[in-house]
Design brief:
- It is a single chain.
- This protein is of the alpha/beta class.
- The protein has five helices and five strands, in the order βαβαβαβαβα.
- Strand 4, helix 4 and strand 5 form a beta-alpha-beta unit.
- The chain starts with a strand and ends with a helix.
Length: 122
């Protein structure tokens, strides 16, 4: 079973999307802040990370930077799922190594799951 680490501080979204991902056969590990997300990424070695950019304790950009520097986590695909729509934010996330950049308001849960499937199978 593929393991997904979901680093997101909105617990309602974490719960809802987590349920949909589980229904699609994924194991989901949740982290409510960037610091915990980093620890879990190193410990659990997920197949994919869903990452919000606006997080307590450690920003999503900082998490992304650290993930890509670390030998144990640098090859894990990261899908950024955020409300930040600025071109600068998108460019920065992609430069730091994000696989895909999704703006929450523009995607349904099903579309997010489809992106996850594509990233894991591609």
């Amino acid at each position: 079973m593929k393991r997904i680490l979901f680093i997101e501080d909105e617990s309602a979204l974490q719960k809802t999307l987590g349920e949909v991902l589980r229904e699609n056969g994924y194991e989901v590990i949740n982290a409510l802040n960037g610091e915990l997300g980093m620890k879990l990424a190193k410990m659990k070695k997920p197949n994919l990370i869903l990452l919000d950019l606006i997080l307590p304790k450690l920003s999503g950009f900082e998490v992304l930077k650290q993930l890509k520097k670390d030998e144990t986590t640098k090859d894990i695909p990261v899908i950024v799922l955020t409300n930040l729509e600025g071109v600068g934010d998108v460019e920065k996330a992609m430069e730091l190594g994000a696989t895909t950049y999704l703006v929450k308001a523009n995607y349904s849960l099903k579309e997010v799951v489809d992106k996850v499937k594509t990233a894991l199978e591609g």
